[in-house]
Amino acid sequence: MSTFEIRGGKQLHGSIQPQGAKNEALQILCAVLLTKEKVTITNIPDILDVNMLIELIGDLGVEVERPQRDTCVFQAKYVNVDFLQSKEYKAKSGKLRGAVMLAGPLIARYGKTYLPQPGGDKIGRRRLDTHIRGFEKMGVKFDYDHEGKEFILTADKLKGTYLLLEEPSVTGTANMVMAAVLADGNTTIYNAACEPYVQQLCKMLNNMGAKIKGIGSNLLEIEGVESLHGCEHRLLADMIETGSFIALAAMTQSEITITDADVNDLGLMLDTFMRFGIQLEVQGNDIFIPQQDHYRIQNFIDGSILTVYDHPWPGVSPDLLSVMLVMATQAKGNVLIHQKMFESRLFFVDKLIEMGAQIVLCDPHRAVVMGLNRQSNLRGIRMSSPDIRAGVALLIAALSAEGKSIIENIDQIDRGYQNIDTRLNALGADIRRMA
Ligand SMILES: CC(=O)N[C@H]1[C@@H](OP(=O)(O)OP(=O)(O)OC[C@H]2O[C@@H](n3ccc(=O)[nH]c3=O)[C@H](O)[C@@H]2O)O[C@H](CO)[C@@H](O)[C@@H]1O
Ligand SMILES: C=C(OP(=O)(O)O)C(=O)O
């Protein structure tokens, strides 16, 4: 298992462009199964999860060309749905969350699919009820094989219906939308997730001939069509990478420009960073972060301590809280970080405490950070990356720390961040990848 060896305490400088969005890519790649025609996707991030999904789509019999690392052309003339029952499929799909969204297109086009336990970050319970109950309302029958931990889904022809989702699940909404576009009749999805990546999926499907209204809201109205045609689609910049680079700049007292950041699709993110006292300037489609020796966390208007919590879009993404938490360790002031959605995502704070941060983990969902205001530095240690975002948060901590740190299990960073060591070294970081 590879590790990163990091020599911290270096100031970084320069420009960095976020990769194409991981969580958009996973939805969009699944949607290529909805048509027999060619679909071209650009700005694809070269990361483990996305490459694994592209491999799986190829394993299913889809023709895949990759003329450049960031561009793929797919043609799903034929799909071997039975491959989903193989041990190979289960092993590979168990490595990422995104494979769960193969179900919507396959049940819509072939009336049959298998849905083994998906992988992805081990950050708490990640149930599939929203997906399965939604499919059921559209006429899908399901069996659950407890031993194989697999759903077997079958349907004659999906029928449009009214779906009130139990929660605005991102992948659940994507699955419902992809099933509904080819269903008989009209589907209404209420309490839908409406983040930019779901919006991008809907826009792509409309470009393929689907009829989806309400894009950007939590009420989607979909008129089913007979078939879809090919299209070209470009992925947005990865907003979680953008947030990670802002936190990195703040922690390492660096001046960084994040270029081509798709600034109109960041929701509350920049405002939330500003609540931590971070100065930043939007310049066209770029974000300039000046060198800041100190940043002061704002209190609420009534003087009480700031709480930052995750919330479905347009709230702050749960995927950003780990990097915001690490950034708070060197702020002036205190903040309560409340990770509402996932129950096992804050345990990495143990490592930050070992590095010298002042944090109280109140319970699995809440941590109070008392900023050091640079009166003492974090110290380098040996640690392991538990999940993508905690992994990158620890990397940021290590880059700001005094001395050497080792991060093990860096596959958990490579799943979501493209060549992060090379890209940050180009800004002046000292990260060595050890086999
Ligand atoms: C591949 C992909 O796109 N993964 C993202 C996707 O995962 P994913 O689609 O798996 O996440 P869901 O939106 O289904 O929900 C995530 C968790 O939050 C809980 N929940 C969700 C909505 C809600 O209103 N209340 C609530 O408590 C769910 O029960 C679940 O435990 O969305 C998550 C939430 O933004 C992100 O962290 C993941 O990076
Ligand atoms: C939780 C995440 O990913 P996944 O849903 O793919 O595990 C993430 O991107 O932070």
Question: How is this structure best described in words?
Answer:
The chain is of the alpha+beta class and 435 residues long. It has 14 helices and 23 strands. Helices cover 29% and strands 24% of the residues. The strands form six sheets. Strands 21-22-1-23 form a four-stranded mixed beta sheet. Strands 2-14-16-15 form a four-stranded mixed beta sheet, covered by helices on one side. The protein has a four-stranded mixed beta sheet with strand order 4-5-3-13, with helices on one face. 49% of the residues are buried. It binds uridine-diphosphate-N-acetylglucosamine (UD1) and phosphoenolpyruvate. The site of phosphoenolpyruvate has 12 residues, from α1 and α12.
Give the helix/strand layout:
Elements: E1 3-7, E2 13-16, H1 22-31, E3 38-42, H2 48-59, E4 63-68, E5 71-75, H3 87-93, H4 103-110, E6 112-116, H5 129-137, E7 141-145, E8 150-154, E9 162-164, H6 170-180, E10 186-190, H7 196-207, E11 211-213, E12 219-223, E13 231-234, H8 239-251, E14 255-258, H9 269-275, E15 281-283, E16 286-289, E17 306-309, H10 321-328, E18 334-338, H11 349-354, E19 358-363, E20 366-370, E21 382-384, H12 388-400, E22 404-408, H13 411-414, H14 420-425, E23 431-434
Parallel strand pairs: 2-14, 3-13, 9-10, 17-18, 21-22
Antiparallel strand pairs: 1-22, 1-23, 3-5, 4-5, 6-8, 7-8, 10-12, 11-12, 14-16, 15-16, 18-20, 19-20
Helix pairs in contact: 1-2, 1-7, 4-6, 5-6, 6-7, 8-10, 8-12, 10-12
Bound molecules: uridine-diphosphate-N-acetylglucosamine and phosphoenolpyruvate (PEP).
